[in-house]
Amino acid sequence: MQGTCAHEAARYRCKFPAEYALANRLDHLKAAYVRESSIVPKRDEWLAQLFDDANLDATCEALAMAGEYDEGAEVRAEAARRKIADCDSRLARYRRLSTLVQMPLWWRRGWPRSRANACGPSRS
């Protein structure tokens, strides 16, 4: 959602279909506008409830857990970087080869230029 001003009132604009719904084939309005004044009181009520005496400990625990360091995240990120570097290296080789030989039609249409398919078709 994006903040916007229309007719001298603050509003939120949801452009959900362009950013998500169309890609996932979900039925959604092209854009929806909501006055900020219709959201703020309920939002403030919800936030006050999260930090009241009855919920304060649970809220603080949830916030602390959300900020915990994931030790495996860096290892996974480095593995992904290595995989991308390997795919980029393969692509460079394929591109060099393509200048030397006549490549099939699927190649000329750009199949290996997409990183999603960069490491070749699956072999079963």
Number of helices: 5
Could you estimate the helical fraction of the residues in percent?
40-55%
In spatial order, strands of the major sheet run 1-2-3
Number of domains: 2
Low-confidence stretches: none
The overall pLDDT, averaged over residues, is 77
| Shape assignment | flat
- Percentage of β-strand residues: 5-15%
H/E series: EEHEHHHH
Tell me the distance between the termini.
43 Å
Structural class: alpha+beta
What's the main sheet like? 3 strands, antiparallel
Radius of gyration, whole Å: 25 Å
Number of DSSP strand runs: 3
Fill in the keyword field for this structure.
flat, 5 helices, 124 residues, alpha+beta
Description:
- By secondary structure, the chain is α+β, with helices and mostly antiparallel strands.
- The chain folds into two domains: 65 residues, no CATH class; 45 residues.
- Helix content is 52%, strand content 12%.
- The protein has five helices and three strands; from the N terminus they run ββαβαααα.
- The protein has a three-stranded antiparallel beta sheet.
- The radius of gyration is 25 Å and the shape is flat.
- The mean pLDDT is 77.
